[in-house]
Design a protein that fits this description.
It is built from 11 helices and 11 strands. The strands form 3 sheets. It has a 5-stranded mixed β-sheet. The chain has a 4-stranded antiparallel β-sheet with strand order 2-1-4-3. Strands 5-7 form a two-stranded antiparallel ribbon. The C terminus is likely disordered.
């Protein structure tokens, strides 16, 4: 059950609020640091002084050229003085060659002039332009206004960051909740937040897919446990009856044969469970295998005439787990022998980079829709005798996929029975044939 957003007593919600609070504080710290850096840069820029004082050489040259051009026209000269004083907030004094002040604009003092520009040639001086002072134009007020503007901007961005932190923390909190639920065994839990784009959305979909697969696997395992428990108890009960009959009838060969058949049935069921568990735990031991040897050993184990083998594989050597590969081929043969009237042919050939084992039977063929269903766990086809659990072909497909191959089934083109195949990936480069010890392992593997 997903907790309410306002239920802060729930551990998940406490964790989510803690994450959101941390993100909000980090956003605030980042904004404040940015504001301090920007403020420091502006302060340094303002300390450099007004524009007129930064490039003294260029300003001096411009003053000299401008005033020399209008020196002999008093009205234009005075207008230029007023223009400079007004536009640049400066106090400008105009003096003649003898140092007498001709005019002044501005209220600043000329006791310590900022700049003195001599007009005319050295042997024929015309006068001087004195830049007495430059007004700072409320530098302090500007700094205060700038600081207030930065503070207002920082507060606004921080408030927005709270919304962003909540939007980011919500899906992350959902992911955390689902992960905690899965760890607690609640495999039906799913990410319920609104779909998000980007990495968080992808992670949510992946987590949901993972939860669905885990839930399905756990359901399959529970069903398997229930089915296997029932299937094992049935032959055991029959064995108890047969044992009692054998006691009463001394040495009855028929009873002993029946007991042996029941033991073999249990042995096969346990072998399939062990093989399935090895795939679940990725406990596969890959070794070089000879396809011809795998086929002949499987035929021998299934007690089928070896002449049904048709071999056409230029590259018979592939890599696989001897136990699982042998189990897959044997299951195909046993399925045809027990449920499809027997094996008419076992073809081994190479196709699309795989080594393929194809079993032809002489049964009535597959019912519509059974081509995929027969590889599902616990599915029993129309020809099932009631003694099969429905794991054999499902295990074949799992083994094939664990070896980079696949399993398939289809009706024979001429209408005579069905064809069931299992394939395993061939190596991209040739590998040496298996050593005798590896080959001998095939025979022992068949016992499983």
């Amino acid at each position: 059950m997903r907790p309410s957003d306002c239920d802060t007593s729930h551990p998940f919600m406490r964790e989510r609020w803690r994450m959101q609070r941390h993100m909000f504080l980090w956003f605030g710290a980042t904004i404040m640091l940015t504001m301090v850096v920007v403020g420091g840069v502006f302060r340094l820029m303002m300390k450099e002084g007004p524009t007129l004082c930064r490039e003294e050489s260029r300003v001096r040259h411009f003053h000299k050229a401008s005033f020399e051009r209008v020196w002999d026209r008093p009205e234009e000269r005075q207008a230029l003085v007023q223009l400079w004083a007004t536009e640049f907030g400066a106090t400008v004094s105009l003096r003649d060659a003898h140092g007498h002040e001709l005019s002044r604009e501005g209220t600043g003092s000329c006791d310590s002039p900022k700049m003195v520009v001599d007009l005319g040639r050295p042997d024929e001086p015309k006068g001087q332009v004195v830049l007495c002072s430059v007004e700072e134009r409320d530098t302090g007020e500007k700094a205060r206004n700038l600081g207030l503007a930065l503070l207002a901007a920082a507060c606004t961005v921080w408030a927005i960051s709270g919304i962003i932190a909540r939007r980011v923390a919500r899906p992350l909190g959902e992911l955390t909740r689902v992960a905690q639920d899965l760890g607690a065994g609640r495999f039906d839990s799913r990410v319920e937040a609104a779909p998000h784009r980007g990495e968080i959305g992808v992670l949510g979909h992946v987590l949901n897919d993972m939860a669905a697969r885990i839930e399905r696997q756990m359901a399959d395992q529970r069903a398997l446990l229930a089915t296997v428990s029932h299937e094992i108890r049935t032959p055991l009960a029959r064995m108890r009856i047969l044992v009692e009959m054998a006691r009463d009838q001394a040495t009855d060969p028929v009873s002993l044969d029946k007991i042996d058949a029941e033991v073999l049935e249990i042995d096969q069921l346990v072998a399939e469970l062990l093989a399935s568990s090895r795939i679940d735990f990725s406990a596969l031991a890959f070794n070089p295998l000879d396809a011809r040897r795998v086929a002949t050993d499987a035929l021998e184990r299934a007690d089928i005439d070896p002449t049904v083998l048709s071999f056409d594989a230029p590259r018979p050597i592939f890599r696989g787990d001897p136990t699982l590969v042998s189990r897959a081929v044997l299951n195909l043969l046993e399925n045809a022998r027990r449920h499809a009237g027997g094996v008419t042919e076992l073809r081994v050939f190479e196709a699309e980079g795989r080594i393929v084992f194809e079993v032809h039977d002489q049964g009535p063929g597959l019912a519509p829709g059974d081509s995929d269903k027969i590889f599902q766990p616990f599915y029993r086809g129309r020809n099932n005798d009631g003694r099969s659990v429905g794991l054999g072909l499902a295990l074949v497909k799992r083994i094939a996929q664990a070896h980079g191959g696949d399993a398939a089934a289809f009706n024979h083109p001429d209408g005579r029975g069905a064809c069931v195949t299992v394939s395993f990936a061939l190596p991209t480069v040739d590998i040496p044939p298996p050593v005798p010890s590896s080959q001998s392992h095939l025979s022992s593997a068949m016992a499983l």
